[in-house]
Design a protein that fits this description.
The complex is a heterodimer of chains A (291) and B (183). By secondary structure, chain A is mostly helical. Chain A contains 13 helices and four strands. Chain A has one domain. In chain A, strands 1-2-4-3 form a four-stranded mixed β-sheet, sandwiched between helices. In chain A, a hairpin with a 7-residue loop joins strand 3 and strand 4. Classes of the chains: A mainly alpha (291), B mainly alpha (183).
Chain lengths: 291, 183
Amino acid sequence: MLLAVFVLLIAATAAAFDLLLGYGAAGLVVAVVIAIAMAFGSYFYSDRIALAASRARPADGPEYQRYHNLVEGLCIAAGLPKPRLYVVDDPAPNAFATGRNPKHAALAVTTGLLTMMNRVELEGVIAHELSHVRNYDILVTTVAVTAVGTIALLSDLGLRFMFWGGRSDRRDNVDAGSVGVIIAVAALALLVLAPFVAMLMQFAMSRRRELLADASGVQLTRYPPGLISALEKLKGDQAVVHHATRATAQLWIESPLDRDQAGEGKKGSWLNRAFDTHPPLDERIAVLKAM
Amino acid sequence: MVVGIVIGGLVLVALLVLVLSYNGLIRARNRIDNAWSQIDVQLKRRYDLIPNLVETVKGYAAHEKTTFEAVTQARANAINAQGPAQQAQAENVLSGALKSLFAVAEAYPDLKANQNFLNLQEELTSTEDRIAYARQFYNDSVLGYNNGIATFPRNMIAGTFNFQKRVYFQGDPEAEGPVKVQF
């Protein structure tokens, strides 16, 4: 559904572009091609990029036997091939999954998570991450990022070209009467606001996919209390992962970036919450408890 | 002329739906067979782990003869069981014997500290989990397949090509009662 709105937004932006500049279809094609090239480049190498960015190392060694066992068990339950397993040396408890499809997937957990969680909690977290792989969330995110990129490019190009002058014959048509001016202003506003709105939609979609991964994970383990207990432990822990960046924030089970403590107790302003890649932990726990 | 094209297009679409549905049902059915074999793979893994476990415990608790014999006998029975009903029953007896073995091991703190024993315990626990997950996957596959052959419009294809409904894996009826804990 959100994708449909994305498409509409792209169409509206392209229409505004066309109206103000007369480049129309050519501009849209250029923007889409560039955005797709950028996004799918990162999609194909998403696993390598994410793993390198977080300084993950392969989880070899007898101390990770339980980690391997839990992943293998859940892969049997899901009918998935076993992903490559990695560990991130960080006391903050967190985990992420990446990879363009189940055959090329990778899973990483922090050493902090392995120490903090007991068996059923660790299983719940791993099930959540495997569900991201199973639901092709990397693909979904890439498509969303492509859409946002297209819109941003269109908007950027459109605003730039307006200063440099577009095709003069179309621009003459636009200035016919006050209605034309209103439409032109609306188109301008759309060009300016569209990237912002698109970003908000991308974050909203990220939150939805996180809730879906929670639900799919519990479908695998058939044991909601495991994940609930893990999320409650995460709630009590405020540590921040050292090598996380804004770009990879979406992939982790809990937002790895610094969260304002004020947002937990009182209701944070809508604008703050709109930029979260993850739904608040309280909401996720409440949803799981209702199952 | 246009009517001819429209009819031709509809026929093509119908054929496509037929082919895709049939292939989907075949894939679902094969998945069930694969899932059933996966259960066997995990059961075999359990059989292979048990002798090692018995030897480790014997090293510390040599006089607990009855428990060891029960486990070894139950394992032999499970390996030789014929047919799913007999196998399920033998598996349950083996699970019970293993539980007794671990209960016995509780009384020997040196054994509990032994790294080998701890590793084996972890392996057996995860193998039990895997068996459970393999059975869960089997049941999920059966559910998907049974839904596929019963819902409209694929039930017509299922009827034509004789796709049969499949049976779920049943749990142990004893296990559904309250668990008796005896010290």
